[in-house]
Design brief:
2 copies of one chain form a homodimer. Chain A folds into 2 domains: about 5-95, OB fold (Dihydrolipoamide Acetyltransferase, E2P) (Beta Barrel), CATH 2.40.50.140; about 115-415, 2-Layer Sandwich (BirA Bifunctional Protein, domain 2), CATH 3.30.930. The first copy, chain A, contains 13 helices and 17 strands. In chain A, helix 4 (about 125-145) packs across helix 6 and helix 4 packs across helix 13 (about 400-410). Chain A is about 30% helix and about 30% strand. At the A-B interface, strand 1, helix 4, strand 6, strand 7 and strand 8 of A face strand 1, helix 4, strand 6, strand 7 and strand 8 of B.
């Protein structure tokens, strides 16, 4: 019976056929061990010379790392094995011999590995990271689906450059300038008026000439937008969302977290409620810690890390000065120079993973802010319509998938959290 | 208690508060009817003058289409109502009065509606179509998740133009030419060597100067790719996939199909197995029907429609001439001038919804095909590596989300199956 390695524990005592790649092998005169990968998992095949025909035994000799093979054998329980089983081989068939694989278990430089990204994907750590990414992606979709959100895919190709073109990728759209989207928010708000609770989750683009471990030119962002949701509810939604995703990874990615040597206990402590701190209190706390910051400064990576490390949990940073945030954020009624915005800062130096706000829903106030920010009014004509025809309080946030995955897996660099990273001067393969 | 309209049937006899938009109203001297939408559904509020304070009663007079309101009332069962309930209002509060809404229940031209797409989304048919789209998207993710596939988000920004630039959107990537992706397949194949069963599902781009109801410049495509899957298994996967999605829509989108006046019985007949016909037999059948086609022709919309209408079910069209298909398709061992490709043609004139194939996994044969197709070899260096280091038979397909949604909803034009369509000379809003 043809089987996948991930299912073998259901077939103990049965004879199965597996197809996959040779990860590594060792053999003595009478017994051989083959570590086989089929994409669903890894398993050890045990080959005893006495049980094998000559062609099969010879195959062990010939097989190289990453060669493809088909084997048949009996599944046996093996409590010491990570998979819980091993396969006692009766037949080994070579499908294709691989020449020397460029990536051996020895150390390689990152620029070499990035050039060979299409092959590096086969490494156990890379597979683990991408499985976590896949699980988190599905977790995000399920979270919103189960809560009655409608998926609204926002467009990638957008017309006017709403907030300056310096970090936008540009393309010709049948004679017009078009730009690759940096956020679906403006497109979600009209959809929230139609469907109440909506979200988008797709690639976004930022042509930023920065070469840090926290930036990618192309990354995936999830953005919910909820009609009649105000600031308090938004903070709760963000908190619930982070907790649900962390819990899901703990529940379903144990093997991957182990491969990545991620400390589970750090993640197990991530439960609601998260600590909350206003921007003003944060500035005071950072000053008390000796950092050189003043009220009105935009907090950078260093300040975010310092702040988050005070708590050991994600922190909700709220009530920012209006001047350092986007034009559409609702003013705090108690302090009109501040806005009802929230950033969620991850601990362990991962910084901002979520940014959101209640949106201005008063037509005239929004108009005033567009003008005050010197934005081209004609580009916001349709966006203003949301406030004209039956306006409503609403809120939303955005979360970068790669930043979340980096934090949850403990990976230091975003480039390992996405299959084919796009970085400064790096668009291959 | 604050409630959503979709949940009201669980609250019969209780007093709830709803927030939403006025769809329409009618009133006589002593009783008023308000149709309210909150994004989760529509419900009728019944207002009796005797039960309301003066401000609430006056509000009925003042409310216009698309004004926002907050109402409180008692939920009562009403078997005649589509939602199964109505709300006997005790209080009506105006949140914001809307000026005359541009889209009234009367007929509007499509170009006007497209200009007002951000408002048109509120119409019942548009909401229904986008809910089906959202359900199908989740259905696609669940289908692959449940079968152990790993999501591999393929990049949008890609370097070399593998197959000519005439239909590609182009952008500057820090001094290099880059192009918006038309398919993730080439990126999935190396990932299949790492993770076995993989898929991508994201936006794809085609700068085609065509203005038909079957084309969008930006659309979403799902593409599975499976290691060690051969042609027969591929056809079964495609069949199972289509059936699962149709069944899910029938199961979970009854109200939406009713709104769109879709004939359910057509969808209920979509069960496996689908009829299969080879390209050669199809040509003979079309000739017999009097169409002017010859072996070797690429079938167009007219031929696809004629072919699919013979069956009333999706048809698997297989074994195409190699010359009219992509370079990477595996030759049929019995007829090397034909390839192991499959198109799934939807009935009712919707044409191709799926295209797939077994991929060439022999390194030298693939190299020969790349040369024969005059493709730039250096662009396929890394792609050839998949065949070099442990090659394996594998197969995959692509399905355009919008074409599937158009077929399942019975919508004639793709533009209504995506929130913000991008068409020839049309990139607003």
């Amino acid at each position: 019976m043809r089987a996948y390695i991930s299912e073998l524990s259901k077939h103990i005592g049965e004879t199965v056929t597996l197809e996959g790649w040779l990860v590594k092998k060792r053999s003595s005169g009478k017994i051989g061990f083959l570590q086989i990968r089929d994409g669903s998992g890894d398993v050890q095949g045990v080959a005893s010379r006495a049980d094998l025909d000559e062609v099969s035994w010879q195959a062990i000799e010939e097989l190289t790392q990453e060669s493809t093979l088909r084997v048949s054998g009996v599944v046996q329980e093996d409590k010491r094995a990570p998979s819980g089983v091993e396969v006692h081989l009766g037949k080994i068939e070579i499908l294709a011999i691989s020449p020397e694989f460029p990536i051996s278990p020895k150390e390689h430089g990152v620029s070499f590995l990035m050039e060979k990204r299409h092959l590096w994907l086969r490494s156990s750590r890379q597979r683990a990271a991408l499985r976590v990414r896949s699980e988190v992606s599905q977790g995000i979709r399920d979270f919103f689906y189960e809560r009655g959100f409608t998926l609204i895919d926002s467009p990638i190709l957008t017309p006017a450059a709403c907030e300056g073109t310096s970090t936008l990728f540009e393309t010709d759209y049948f004679g017009e300038q078009a730009y690759l989207s940096q956020s679906g928010q403006l497109y979600l708000e009209p959809a929230a008026a139609a469907l109440g609770k909506v979200y988008c989750f797709g690639p976004t683009f930022r042509a930023e000439k920065s070469k840090t471990r926290r930036h990618l030119m192309e990354f995936w962002m999830v953005e919910p937008e909820v009609a009649f949701l105000e600031f308090g509810g938004l903070c709760e939604l963000a908190e619930e969302f982070v907790c649900a995703l962390v819990a899901r990874v703990l529940d379903r990615c144990s093997a991957e977290l182990a491969t990545l040597e991620r400390d589970r206990s750090v993640l197990e402590s991530i439960t609601a409620p998260f600590p909350r701190i206003t921007y003003s209190d944060a500035i005071d706390a950072l000053k008390a810690d000796g950092l050189d910051v003043s009220w009105g400064d935009d907090l950078g990576a260093e300040e975010e890390t310092a702040l988050a490390s005070r708590f050991g949990k994600p922190v909700l940073l709220t009530h920012f000065p209006a001047a350092i945030k986007a034009f559409y954020m609702e003013p705090d009624p108690d302090n009109p120079d501040q806005v009802l915005g929230v950033d969620v800062l991850a601990p362990e130096g991962y910084g901002e993973i979520i940014g959101g706000s209640q949106r201005i829903h008063d037509h005239d106030l929004l108009l005033e802010r567009i003008r005050a920010h010197d934005l081209p009014l004609e580009a916001f004509d349709w966006y203003l319509d949301v406030r004209k025809f039956g306006t409503f309080p609403h809120s939303g946030f955005g979360m970068g998938l790669e930043r979340f995955v980096a934090w949850v897996t403990g990976l230091k660099h975003l480039r390992e959290t996405i299959p084919y990273p796009r970085m400064l001067n790096k668009i291959y393969p």
